[in-house]
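Morning F.,

Quick status update on the modeling queue. The single chain you submitted on Monday has been processed. Sequence for confirmation:
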Amino acid sequence: MTLQPETNSTSLDENPDQLPITPRTQVKRVAQRGHYERDLIYQILDEGLVCHVGFAIENQPFVIPTAYGRVADRLYIHGSPASRMLRSLQKGIDVCVTVTLLDGLVLARSAFHHSMNYRSVVVFGTATTVQNPEQKLEALRAFTEQVVPQRWDEVRHPNRQELAGTLVLSLPLTEASAKVRMGPPVDDEDDYSLPVWAGVLPLHLKAGEAIADPQLPPTIATPSYVQHYARPYGDAIA
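Structure tokens below.
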């Protein structure tokens, strides 16, 4: 999906494959940055590594960072059955999950118009416990592949005890929206004549050189997917 640099337009492109716009997902502030297309929402989710899970217990709000995985139109989170977050979400309370990718720093001619280029997704809904063993294993595969693609086929899969000791929750991707900013700064017209450098400083997530486990036999080579690790859509939006 190709997105155009930011302008002052407030229209949203119609797309038959977009998610329904609800009062909770509709982007109101700078509405032109709002997007509801499934493909874009899924792309942002697949690029991310950490989500933030927001919920409230007895009027006390919590926002917890955690790993996640996506399979089709469902987002999965997992952890210990003793986790307060997971035990709370099991009860069917409302949850808000966010993922943000930072693409660049936007340096304007005025301090007021400094910004960031980013891609973000907000998901609303209620989570359910994954009971089916095959679906649970599929979710655990998604967690592994979300972090390191091609890893699942090489490692030992969870055994029965590990599966029993892992709680997996499923959140449907039926109420979600994306918000994206890209392109150069948008300055006030009078400020374009100021003798101040303006532009975008791109930021990228880049892997360093892999460090082998000290207990790893020297005969085991570093896999190609580790040597050439990169996120799937890191450079999708300039």
